[in-house]
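Work package 3, deliverable 3.1, input record:
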Amino acid sequence: MNWGSWGEFWAMGGYGLYVWGSYGLCTVVFSVEPLLAMRRLKQALSQIRDAR
Amino acid sequence: MSRHFHFFTFASPPRFYALSGFLIPWLYFVAVLTGLIGLYFGFFVAPTDATQGDAYRIIFIHVPTAWMSMVLYLVMAGWAAVGWAFNARLASMVARALAPTGALFTVLALWTGALWGKPTWGAWWVWDARLTSELILLFLYLGYIALVESIDDTRRADHAGALLALVGAVNVPVIYFSVRWWNTLHQGASISMTAAPKMASTMLTSMLLMTVACWAYAFAIVFVRTRAIVLERERDADWVLALGRSRSGVNV
C-alpha cells in the first residue's frame, strides 16, 4: 500500500493537480460520450417509429 | 441459402445491428471491470517512481489513450478505404462512427500529456516532433469530420472522407517513430516488441489493463454510433421499418 491516509492519496505526493486533472477529464469524456451516442441512437429509433 | 459461414455475413447492416446489440452491454462491462482493476493496480499496487514521484501515474491513462488515438485512425482509414473500394456501405458507416471517438482519445492523449509535461519537463507544451505530430492527428480527425459532414450526398461524402483519411494515415507512423527519428523531449516507446519492458511489472499490468478497458470502450461506443448511423441511413429499408414496429426495437 502506497498511502498512509486518504489525504496523502489525494495529494499524490504534491502532484494531485496534474494526476487528478488527467484522470478527471478522462472520467468526464468516458461518461458523457456514451450518453451522447445513446441519445443519437434513441433519436434515430424514435424517428423510425414516427415515420410509419 | 448456404449454411457455410460467410466472411461478409456481418457486413450486412441488419445482421450487424443484431450482433452489436448483443455485444454492447458486455463490452461496457469489460471496459468498467478492467478499468477499475487497472486503476487499482496503478494507484495502490504500483510503487511511487524514484525520479518522477507520483506524477508518473498519469502514464496509466496517457499511454493507452495515445495508442488508441493512433490505432483508431488506422482502423478508420482502413474501413473508409474498404467502403470506397468495394462500395461496402457498412464499412463507410463504421469509419464515420470511429472519427469522434478517435478525436476524443487524441484530445485525452494531448491533455494528459500536457499535465504530465508540466511537472516533469516544466512546460505544458513544446513544439517537439511527437507532440506536434499528435496535434496534427487531431486536426486530421476534425478535418475528416468536417469534410464528411459538409457534403450532403452520403456516398460522395464517404468517398471524399476516405481519400482524406488515407492520405492522413501517413502521419501515424510519423507519430510512432518520431521519438526515434528526431531528437525529442518526449521519452521513447514505453513498450517495445524487441526489448524487455523497462518498467516494474505492476506498472505494466496496470497499463495493459487500462489498454484493454480502452479497447472495450472504443468497440462499445463505435458500435452504438454505427447502429445510430445504420438507422439514419437505412430508414426506408424493410428491416428498419419492421424494427420500428416491433417491441424489441424500442429496447436498445
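The longest helix of chain A spans residues 16-51.
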